[in-house]
Amino acid sequence: MKKLLLLFPILLLFAFTSSTTQEERHVFDIIHKGKSIGTLYAKKEQVDSKTIYSNRTEIDTRIITKIEVDYNYKVVYENSKLSHAYVLILFNGKEKTNTYTDKNSEGYIFYEDDEEENRIHESITYGTVNLMFEEPETIQKVYAEEHGTFHSIKKVDSNTYEKTSHKGKTSIYKYKDGELVEAEIDAGLISFKIVVK
Fold first, then answer.
1. Virtual CA dihedral for 18, 83, 72, 167, nearest 10 degrees?
2. What is the pTM assigned to this prediction?
3. What band does 16 get if pLDDT is binned at 50, 70 and 90?
4. Would the N or C end of the chain have less CB density within 10 A of its end CB?
């Protein structure tokens, strides 16, 4: 019995360490016209077969008028395939975008403001949140969780990629040792540069 009591904490520790979360975090400065206007926080968690991405972008600046933008992404992959994605964007404190992508037996359903907008009949294995963590070396299209569409992506230089949205807006992503170090992003509401801290 004493041996069992001594062994119990060790078994408990092993149980917790074998299923603990592996976590990766990145923080980027947001630059507009040479001035820091906010911060992008990106987190990737590995929990068993699930990979959970959480991105939050806070922008506070003044361009003619005051602009406060808050981007929130929560994206879950299971066995390397998108399970669901949630995007909430606030502009000056008011909801601008509220979208959700949900996996079903035929593919995915994309909802905007709780209304079904689009159905996707193919597997999704790489989205815009992945760009913060994984260099898209062999990727040709990226799922845009905010819009429920695919954006094209191509290599334009060594470790440098150009992403083009369904509306023709382009963003450039630069990597070093497989990690994102800088990007020039056309986010629609505002264009900005992100630089790793």
1. 140
2. 0.84
3. very low
4. N
